[in-house]
Amino acid sequence: MTITFVSNYINHHQLPFCDAIYEQLGDKFTFLQSIPIEEERINIGWDNEGEKRPYVRFLYNNEKLLNLLIESDILLVGWSGVPKVESTVIKRLKRGKPTFRISERIYKTGRWKVISPRGLYYRFREFTRFRQHPYYLLCIGTYVAADFKLLQAFPNKKYRWGYFPKTYHYDEELWQKKEATNIVQICWAGRFIPLKHPEYMIKLATDLRDQGYTFHLHMIGSGEMENQLHQTSTNLGLNEIITFHGKQSPENVRQIMEQCHIFALTSNHIEGWGAVLSEAMNSGMAVVASTHAGATQFLIDNGSNGFYYKKGDYNELLTLTKQLLDNPTLRTKFAKNAYHTITNLWNAERAATLLLKACNKILNDEDIVPEINGPLSIAPLIKP
């Protein structure tokens, strides 16, 4: 079995999954990178180490590699940003060759766009007309299946999926270190941009302080709102309880997370997934996450391995964070359950094994048997 995965570029959120596929398939697996990694991504701490992997090849240097999109037994299609990739994928679909579309939401900025005649033409061309073909959707986010349902695409072929950062395995020492810390450490990580709502954390720190809570807040990242956040923190007298770490490598982010107890994900509906949530859970933190982010309702079993709050409701974020500050036992329970959710269910190695099993079923003209939970389980039709 040969598998080609085509996407814009390889990054640290995709590497563990691709490494796991390569470990099982060897040279029969290819990651086809369609464009060079963006300078903006490198500036916020991403690297291009993935481009050195033996299975990575570069379409932007050699268009003859488009043939792989036709010839491979199985094709995984992410967002490529290259029209020739889409036209070649369509040629493949016309031949009835098995293909997985890996997608975040297509109507992040408004489902009303479904009525656009131009948009409908392209969506029909790429998705709907192949609804009876061996064409499957891997949904990166809670609301993806509902978006594609509007197009009547991928009937009974929509599955949960995600991004799979590197999974760390810890021993009891991690929990002992967390429990030995007298001051609860709260963490937030991401780009300082409006869709991530980092300003919520400044407000949260202010309200918690004013209500008598003892804690320390770690803000990891950089971006257009950075100066504003620093200034607001200073004006409100928060500098002693907030550390701004600036942009960090993925490895350094994990090291900071390992020292923390609570993680907040405050993104709005533009956040297609939010891989930082997986990293936080894997690092043993109790999470409070907005349901607007695509990953939240796939990863969080509300009240069991974390909390989620709805509709970007700041007051609910505050209330749930206070519950975790007030209840160390609950905090530890959530943290350990979150850790096991990643190490046992939502990780690259398991995703790769399940996908290869599904591919073998398809190539043997058998139906995919959906998982009960986690990757390759049936994606629910949840409206945003």
Features:
13 strands, Rossmann fold, alpha/beta, 38% helix, 384 residues, 6-stranded parallel β-sheet
Write the layout of secondary structure elements.
Elements: E1 3-7, H1 15-25, E2 29-33, H2 39-43, E3 56-58, H3 67-71, E4 74-77, H4 83-94, E5 99-103, H5 117-126, E6 135-140, H6 144-149, E7 158-161, H7 172-180, E8 184-189, H8 199-210, E9 215-220, H9 226-235, E10 242-246, H10 250-258, E11 262-265, H11 275-282, E12 286-290, H12 296-299, E13 307-309, H13 314-326, H14 328-344, H15 348-363
Parallel strand pairs: 1-2, 1-4, 2-3, 4-5, 5-6, 6-7, 8-9, 8-11, 9-10, 11-12, 12-13
Number of domains: 2
Spans with pLDDT under 50 lasting ≥5 residues? none
Task: Tell me the strand order in the biggest sheet.
Answer: 3-2-1-4-5-6-7
Strand content: 15-25%
Largest sheet: 7 strands, parallel
Which CATH class of the largest domain applies here?
A: Alpha Beta
Name of the CATH architecture of the largest domain: 3-Layer(aba) Sandwich
Averaging pLDDT over every residue, what do you get?
93
Distance between the termini: 37 Å
Portion in helices: 25-40%
Question: Do you know the CATH topology of the largest domain?
Answer: Rossmann fold
Q: Total number of β-strand segments? A: 13
Taken in chain order, the helices and strands follow as EHEHEHEHEHEHEHEHEHEHEHEHEHHH
Radius of gyration: 21 Å
Return the structural class. alpha/beta
The shape is: globular
- Count of discrete alpha- or pi-helical segments spanning 4 or more residues: 15
